[in-house]
Amino acid sequence: MNMRLLSATTILFSAVVLFPSIGLSQSSAAFEQGFTQQESSNNIAKTEYFVAQSIIRNPCPFGGSIAGDNCQLQAFGNGVVFPGVKYWVDANPKWPGIYYKGIQDKCPYGGTRAGVENCQLMKLNGKLTEGVRYWVDANPDWPGLYYRQPQKPQ
Predict the structure, then answer these.
(1) Residue 52: CA atoms inside 13 Å, Cβ hemisphere, count?
(2) How does pLDDT run along the chain (154 residues), one tens digit per residue?
(3) If we measure between CA atoms, which residue out of 96, 118, 95 comes closest to residue 107?
(4) How far apart are CA 95 and CA 82, in angstroms?
(5) Nearest Cα to 95, choosing from 72, 74, 112?
(6) Long-range contacts of 48-51 (CB under 8 A, 24+ apart)
(7) Burial class for 39, CB neighbours closer than 10 Å (0-12, 13-18, 19+)
(8) What are the residues facing 124 on neighbouring strands?
């Protein structure tokens, strides 16, 4: 299971419903002591607390890796995207993917026809989350699919 794709609701459900016997003060103390102790009955609670903390602290909750203030969901090799082409990302689960406007009924930058005027560069089934603003960076120095890291509470 990809732990990065779990939502805050899943985390809260897991903490409250699945592990009600884990007291926050006990778990905090166990986490602060670290995981170098020998196996004990508390190791399960320690591990569950550690996993929950790393999910909460994940700056890229919709997958990918940190790229400055952004998250790079997918890197592209040379020749996948081209500077000067306007790409857009559609997260609708019916047709998730990266698109650009076709030229004279053709897809000169790769992909396949999608609708009357568009080309779908690539399908992204199961990789996108509706409501997240994605974009394609075609700069040859860091081509890829990105989204903004969610703001952390102050």
Answers:
(1) 22
(2) 344 443 333 333 333 333 333 333 333 333 333 434 444 455 555 555 554 555 457 889 999 999 999 999 999 999 999 999 999 999 999 999 999 999 999 999 999 999 889 999 999 999 999 999 999 999 999 999 999 988 765 5
(3) 118
(4) 22
(5) 112
(6) 48/14, 48/19, 48/22, 49/22, 51/3
(7) exposed
(8) none
Query: In which residue are the tokens 């016997």 written?
Result: 21
Q: Take residue 6 and report the two structure tokens written for it.
A: 């779990």
Report H helices in 8-153: 8-13, 24-33, 43-56
The span from the CA of 95 to the CA of 137, in Å, is 20
117 three-class SS = coil
Q: Fill in the amino acid letter for 145.
A: L
Phi, psi of 56 (to 5 degrees): -60, -40
d(CA 127, CA 89): 11
Query: Global pTM?
Result: 0.62
CA distance 40 to 11: 24
